[in-house]
Amino acid sequence: MPYFVDTHCHFDFPPFSGREVASLASAAQANVQQVIVPAVSAAYFSRIVDLAANYPPLFAALGMHPLYIAQHQEADLALLASLLENKTEKLVAVGEIGLDLYMDEPQLPCQLALLRAQLTLAKQHDLPVILHSRRSHDQLASALRKADLPRTGVVHGFAGSLAQAQAFIRMGYYIGVGGTITYERAQKTRNVMATLPLSALLLETDAPDMPLAGFQGQPNRPERAANVFAVLCELRSETPQEIAAHLLENSQRLFQLPPVEKCVL
User: Fold this and answer.
1) Cα separation of 211 and 219, whole Å?
2) Which residue among 77, 134, 138, 181 is the one 20 to 30 A from 98 at the CA level?
3) Helices 137-147 & 108-124, crossing angle to 10 degrees?
């Protein structure tokens, strides 16, 4: 069976901080061999860069999350530009960036300005983007069309409609499959993930957030990407081997990840 890549895990947060080796060992036991760690604000940039440098299975993504739009400063954007200018091969994406219209006082003009600035940086440095979107898929799709990124990216934790997913895919973007599909009540999302082409899907946890069914009230963990995969296999007609092979190939193609033998602890 091909190994798994958790393409979205906030490994710089508890319960992983201070327990990195044990946490990565638990992930590896579930065949989750590589983990991409996206930032949410500039305060975490150096921590994530250091994690990626010190732990071969970890890869960094740097960006400013729309939920914290009131906290981001102009200097943070300058810091991001500087780090991207001097990036190593362990920095594989700009993220987590995007739009969020579910939050109180979304300040959409400010969110859009920050998103556009970060999309421009991604284009300048030939990096893909990791995208957050809540109740904002149409606005995000419009911004992405205007940005016209050559490396595209992934809309993570997708819970929109089939038509919205297909709109992103037509632009070359991937769709992140996470723990939402483990809930039987999430029929819309389960049907979307059962229908989309395998060539458009990536596996993720959003750990320690988005707990899976059966693990409510517990921090999510990267090893539970294997649980998400198992449910995805139940929803689709292809063999588990074929699904796993596509998920791995998609992850390697988008993020230009090295083979796993170079990433062992």
Assistant:
1) 6
2) 181
3) 40
C-alpha neighbours within 13 Å on the C-beta side of residue 101: 9
Work out the average pLDDT over 134-146: 96
pLDDT at 132: 97
Q: Does pTM surpass 0.90? A: yes
pLDDT at 164: 96
- 222 within 8 A of 9, measured Cβ to Cβ: yes
Long-range contacts for 147-150 (Cβ within 8 Å, ≥24 apart)?
A: 147/116, 147/119, 147/120, 147/123, 148/123, 149/119, 149/122, 149/123, 150/123, 150/126
Instruction: Classify residue 108 as exposed, middle or buried by CB count within 10 Å of its CB (0-12, 13-18, 19+).
Output: middle
9: closest CA among 22, 25, 27?
27
Query: Which residues, in sequence order, are CB contacts of 216 under 8 Å at separation 6+?
Result: none
Q: What's the pLDDT tens digit per position in 180-228?
A: 999 999 999 999 999 999 999 999 999 999 999 999 999 999 999 999 9
